[in-house]
Inverse folding.
């Protein structure tokens, strides 16, 4: 019989399997896809790449692994990341304990046995002491739900489920619906092939240039030369990466020239360094407005048609409070004659017809529609599994007003169920791999501790959970983030409760807290011995 079932063979599930094996526990991974990789298995749209520098977006648990793998680009593209993850799977011989093409349909806690009883979608049943949801934060794509979409005669694709064999868009007329990260990365690539691209924008996003290219040998060598120190700094940093070079100065306390110069330097450096330019951008509306003005000036500089530049400029939410995008030639693409921006705020999307997309003002004939409409973030994967805890209580009921957890790791009433990078943890506000390793290590240590000490179950107390939920909300409300209609709040899914889901207190502070909880005998949790 199994000690642990791990749901998902992405970056979390793979490392969890490796750690549990190291503890001598019998674990098995169930994965809906046909291979490992999670996010990087599914998101194969043109231009898909990581927004964090490659050397920082990699596992740190094995120094040998880190030293033998050489990244080719500053920001690795999806195929290279998937090759890396395959290398990890092979190097640590993970595949024998992963069952592919298998979706976990239900997980019920059996109170008499103190174990989880699970069923797969093809009817296999299994049981395990521990159930680990390594199901990802952005793994359930939003299904398109446009009037008339079933009548469309051309091909449709979702960026989050891009065909493995790729799509040849040469000479095609393409509609892209959505302007989030996936759209912003893919549109410049699509526009290289397509005859015509119509970009349907509901909300403009802020985007900063990646300045991608071959990885600098100086950066790669310096990273490895100080590897241990760099990894430690990453773990204790606010967002789990170092290249953004977070500054403590306040935007409101420097002169106009200096502020502009800092923003310019960071725009030239690229990526999230713009967001880390000053310490008050996420909390002070005045400081934030300065960053917003700078970004708007950059859009005007790049985009030749002032009317298009204006439509591309966000106006109704603070800079960086919807996930900042990192692009390669996004604003520039609107200077190409074959790219047209359609502002759905001016003329809402009306229907999809047999031949294209119709708004209140125009009819756009296309051969292909690309839905870049995002995900049911953070809770999507968990809410699609029939999860029942003590007394047959459903997780979806426990979370009907938004996700509640203690430390983003566990939910009261659901013993021995662990959520890796779950809502209530830094997760999507951080370098995911750093946060994943922290969660997996903490949980593996816990499972090892329980096994050594003959402990049967662990669960958070209702009090500790309530206090954590309050703290997560307080932390968010201290910032400007809750102002924006973002997927951080579930605002992109109709009917989803509006709750800021990730913990914004910072990766380092959060780690320190989790470590203190463990050091104090798993404070806030109830541990019970075997009957
Ligand atoms: P996002 O960031 O959620 O973007 C989805 C986009 O699709 C966004 O611009 C939405 O506009 C738009 N959208 C969604 N539904 C519709 C409808 N019905 N009509 C028109 N436009 C719509 O998803 P991504 O895949 O780009 O990125 C997700 C994350 O993956 C990213 O942040 C990284 O962390 C990696 P809205 O803003 O809701 O008005």
């Amino acid at each position: 019989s199994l000690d642990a079932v791990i749901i998902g063979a992405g970056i979390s599930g793979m490392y969890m399997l490796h750690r549990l094996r190291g503890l001598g526990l019998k674990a098995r991974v169930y994965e809906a896809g046909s291979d490992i990789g999670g996010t990087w298995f599914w998101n194969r749209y043109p231009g898909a790449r990581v927004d964090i520098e490659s050397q920082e977006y990699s596992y740190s648990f094995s120094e040998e692994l880190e030293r033998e793998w050489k990244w080719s680009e500053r920001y690795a593209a999806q195929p290279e990341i998937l090759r890396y993850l395959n290398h990890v799977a092979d190097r640590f011989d993970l595949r024998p304990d992963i069952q592919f093409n298998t979706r976990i349909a239900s997980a019920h806690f059996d109170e008499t046995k103190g174990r989880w009883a699970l069923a797969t979608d093809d009817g296999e049943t299994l049981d395990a002491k521990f159930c680990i949801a390594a199901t990802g934060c952005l793994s359930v794509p939003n299904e398109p739900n446009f009037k008339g979409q079933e009548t469309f005669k051309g091909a449709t694709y979702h960026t989050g489920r891009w065909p493995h064999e790729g799509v040849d868009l040469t000479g095609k007329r393409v509609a892209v619906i959505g302007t989030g990260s996936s759209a912003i990365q893919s549109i410049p690539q699509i526009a290289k092939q397509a005859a015509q691209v119509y970009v349907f924008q509901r909300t403009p996003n802020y985007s900063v240039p990646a300045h991608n290219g071959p990885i600098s040998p100086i950066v790669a060598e310096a990273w490895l030369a100080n590897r241990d120190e760099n990894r430690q700094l990453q773990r204790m940093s606010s967002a789990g990466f170092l290249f953004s070079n977070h500054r403590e100065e306040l935007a409101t306390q420097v002169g106009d020239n200096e502020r502009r110069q800092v923003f310019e330097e960071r725009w030239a450096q690229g990526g999230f360094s713009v967001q880390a330019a000053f310490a008050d951008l996420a909390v002070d509306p005045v400081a934030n407005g300065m960053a917003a003005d700078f970004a708007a000036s950059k859009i005007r500089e790049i985009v030749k048609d002032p009317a298009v530049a204006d439509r591309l400029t966000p106006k109704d939410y603070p800079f960086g409070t919807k996930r900042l995008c990192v692009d390669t030639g996004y604003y520039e693409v609107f200077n190409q004659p074959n790219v047209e921006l359609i502002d759905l705020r001016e003329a809402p999307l009306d229907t999809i017809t047999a031949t294209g997309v119709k708004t209140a003002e125009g009819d756009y004939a296309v051969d292909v529609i690309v839905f870049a409409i995002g995900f049911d973030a953070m809770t999507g994967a968990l809410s699609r599994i029939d999860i029942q805890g003590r007394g047959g209580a459903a997780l979806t009921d426990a979370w009907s007003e938004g996700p509640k957890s203690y430390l983003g790791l566990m939910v009261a009433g659901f013993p021995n169920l662990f959520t890796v990078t779950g809502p209530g943890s830094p997760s999507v506000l951080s370098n995911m791999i750093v946060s994943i390793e922290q969660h997996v290590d903490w949980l593996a240590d816990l499972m090892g501790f329980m096994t050594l000490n003959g402990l049967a179950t662990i669960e958070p107390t209702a009090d500790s959970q309530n206090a954590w939920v309050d703290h997560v909300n307080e932390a968010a409300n201290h910032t400007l983030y809750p102002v924006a209609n973002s997927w951080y709040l579930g605002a992109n899914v109709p009917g989803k409760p509006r709750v800021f889901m990730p913990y914004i207190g910072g990766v380092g502070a959060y780690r320190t807290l989790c470590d203190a909880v463990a050091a104090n005998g798993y404070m806030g949790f109830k541990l019970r011995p075997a009957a």
